[in-house]
Amino acid sequence: MPELPEVETVRRGLEKYVLGKIICDAETFHPRAIKPSSIAGLSAVNGAKILAVHRRGKFLWFELNREITLVAHLGMSGQLLVQPSLATKQPHLRAKLGLGKGIRPKKIRDEIRFIDQRTFGWLSVEQLTNGIPTCVEHIAFDPFAKEFNIKQVVSNIKRKKTAIKPALLSQGVVSGIGNIYADEGLWRARIHPEIICEDLSESEIKKVITSTVSVMKGAIKAGGTSFDEQYKNVNGESGYFSRSLSVYGREGQPCSRCSTAIRRIAFANRSSHFCPRCQR
Fold it and tell me: FPG-type domain spans which residues (predicted)?
């Protein structure tokens, strides 16, 4: 699933191409492309001007010159590509937004194409409350938000009786962190993923968060992490941070710090990768 670095890479890419453009031809090609709770169909954004592209955690939304917004969640395999309108349509094209200039553009030159092989992603037309879409209101600030309060987040995690790994994945505590970057952040902080939050000191929890943020900053610079064709940036290019991963997906390979074989354990319907010597 695309995590914060991948979604931020997509947001930055969209920002280069779509600001100031008019959505002049919004179409849906699959019933699951639109979230069931969407207050309107995709055609509701026809004629709207894109003013900005925002992100919180793994959620993206387009600020429009209207009282509604268009939200996107990439799910497991979603992509938002910016392509010429005459480009060949992809097999898993679920929706598209034709872009033009002016109130009544004569020619559609580019399209935002929503591609989603596994159909777990979605688009949604929503109301805004203080500039935040309805579905994002319950999502915690991510570490790159100016409102992020690391002291409060550390305190909240410290009170939890769960292991540190699922605490990091809880989008109501801190958003944007998924399986890849949780594993990498825990490895950098030398913390075992199964240690109970209450048993960690506040300084250890803070180190986990700052280490994870450091990993994600590196991933953003590398354009995110791609393991297959399911994650691409808006130009259809793969990210290359997979070359810099220390534990995720490296089961049986030597730890770069101590040469101990990386282990993988089943963890809440997921996998956790860690070094049994460095992380205790």
Answer: 246-280
229 part of the active site? no
* Residue 270 is among the residues annotated as catalytic for this protein: yes
Residue 95 — φ and ψ, nearest 5°?
Answer: -165, 160
Name the catalytic one among 105, 270, 276, 277.
270
Active site residue 126: no
Distance from C-alpha of 241 to C-alpha of 215, rounded to nearest angstrom: 10
Q: What's the fold here for domain 4-136?
A: N-terminal domain of MutM-like DNA repair proteins (3.20.190)
Catalytic-residue membership of 3: yes
Which amino acid appears at position 61 of this protein? W
215-247 pLDDT per residue, tens: 999 999 999 998 877 789 999 999 999 999 999
To the question of domain 150-274 being in CATH 1.10.8.50, the answer is yes
What are the boundaries of each domain within the chain? 4-136, 150-274
Tell me which of 11, 55, 58, 188 is the catalytic residue.
Answer: 58
